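hey so i finally got around to running the thing on that chain from the lab meeting. sorry it took forever, my laptop kept dying and i had to restart like 3 times. anyway pasting the input first so we r on the same page abt which one it is
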Amino acid sequence: MNSWLTKFRISNALDAGKPLPDSLRKKIAADPELERFVKQTEALGHSRPALPPSDPSMHDTIMRAVRASTRRERPQRAPVLSWLTASVALVALALVGAWLVRLHGVLPGRQMMDQADLVLEMSETMPTNVPSLVMAPLSDEWTRVNHDVRGTAQILLASLP
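ok and heres what got predicted. didnt touch it at all, straight out
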């Protein structure tokens, strides 16, 4: 980690064109890997062609194009199309409601309320009924195990001389 930080500091100093601080020079002198890094970095810096200075008008042109691409115009909808879609959906909903009323004679919401009333009525008897309902399968299984044990005991006792 320390070596990466040192390499970063060296790279920043070389990019800025500043001389290396004495502390970095001492570290470079003590570490052959850092010496190789400095030589490679300087070689890359010298071999890289210098970029021509950018024209301010080019920058403005690029930035205008970027800003224009980020502004998206919302597609224009025809108001008649949206009203037509909404009215078709409303008619379909009304037809489904009429069909349900005709089919069941009552709105489905009333049936749901009847079921909710049933659940509320059952909640009064739940503390007494639920334990027996939960334990019933286990009790049945335990009865079968006892029956099997008694049958096995009778067979073993019958086979003794």
